[in-house]
Specification:
Two copies of one chain form a homodimer. Chain A has about 160 residues and is mainly alpha-helical. Chain A has one domain: Winged helix-like DNA-binding domain superfamily/Winged helix DNA-binding domain (Arc Repressor Mutant, subunit A), CATH 1.10.10.10. Chain A is built from six helices and two strands; from the N terminus they run ααααββαα. A two-stranded antiparallel sheet of chain A has the order 1-2. In chain A, a hairpin with a 7-residue loop joins strand 1 and strand 2. The first copy, chain A, is elongated and about 60 Å long. The two termini of chain A are about 35 Å apart. Chains A and B meet through helix 1, helix 2, helix 3, helix 5 and helix 6 of A and helix 1, helix 2, helix 3, helix 5 and helix 6 of B. Chain A binds a DNA duplex (23 and 23 nucleotides) through helix 4.
DNA sequence: TATTGTTATACTCTATAACTATA
DNA sequence: TATAGTTATAGAGTATAACAATA
């Protein structure tokens, strides 16, 4: 699961997972000129980089996001976590089950409302989050490695104009 | 399937489909500062806009991309189409089946190699592609409506530095 | 009667493997 | 023996609906 320091992660490691608009036998036509298609290609590469750093650990981008969210919001309810990640409640249950089975989170019955849980990181969970943050940073850095600091800031600003 | 001229499509119509990093009870922590997460949010919105313009027609972004690709590359083999969209051959078969069932494409046995087909648009397919292109353009325009022309060009340039 | 979370179920998407027919 | 395409099958992921406990 750890990436060796000597072979740095590169976006070139996952280029093959996304089709390339430029060099292929086929012409993408209108798709060539659609921002949505460019975003999709970038997303595939980012997702592939995450899959690569997570390896065969069973961790997925979604599960990692869930753990990060729990770490940042100790005691959050499952419904809140589901909403924050755009998930149904059953899907959130499963993601939390995954981490609970690995002793990384625990469900504590809320003292004021015994229908709901507050979700908290365990000691092992804190360690795991630290590792995961490093891996996520590696993948994200590899994704934008070809951009200067100024370009990256501008890309983030422009993306935020879309999703904010 | 046609969007009425009087109610213009807006990204605000699908905002609810992607979680918002800014206004919610939870803090996204590290995710807040990851380009990959911003790309994912933008991708969800773009995908949702496409779903909205396609309505309940059964057309999906993937199927629309397939038809566009066939229109731009008449006579392409299924394997080429699959590769260009990052699909397995069975998945490409299904997407082409969808359009064939709607009389929009036809498989013509290649005269030189009778194992393979060339895929071609029918007359109905040409009409459908024209409609679809207008819908895709609507969705894409709505996605980037908040950007100036200069900002859009810069966004496309920066995304291309990632996916190219 | 409404809400939190779980379980049961079904659906969509996709891939791998096995098959047919050509080469 | 290899390749193009199809069919069969299975897995992952997700959602909706039904359910239990609590409010």
């Amino acid at each position: 699961m750890q990436i060796d320091g000597e072979d740095r992660l590169s976006i070139d490691d996952v280029r093959g997972r996304a089709p390339k608009m430029s060099d292929g036998p086929l012409d993408y036509g209108l798709l060539n000129d659609r921002t949505g298609f460019a975003i999709k290609l970038a997303w595939i590469l980012g997702y592939s980089l995450l899959q690569k750093v997570f390896g065969d650990s069973g961790i997925t981008p979604l599960r990692a996001s869930m753990l990060e969210l729990i770490a940042t919001n100790p005691g959050a309810q499952q419904t809140q976590l589901a909403n924050a990640l755009g998930l149904s409640r059953p899907a959130a249950t499963l993601a939390i089950d995954f981490w609970e089975a690995r002793d990384c989170v625990e469900r504590r019955i809320a003292p004021d409302d015994r229908r709901s849980f507050g979700i908290f990181l365990t000691a092992a969970g804190h360690e795991r989050v630290t590792e995961l943050r490093a891996l996520i940073k590696q993948a994200d850095d590899a994704l934008v490695a070809d951009l200067t600091a100024e370009e990256l800031a501008e890309l983030r600003r422009l993306l935020a104009k879309i999703h904010r």
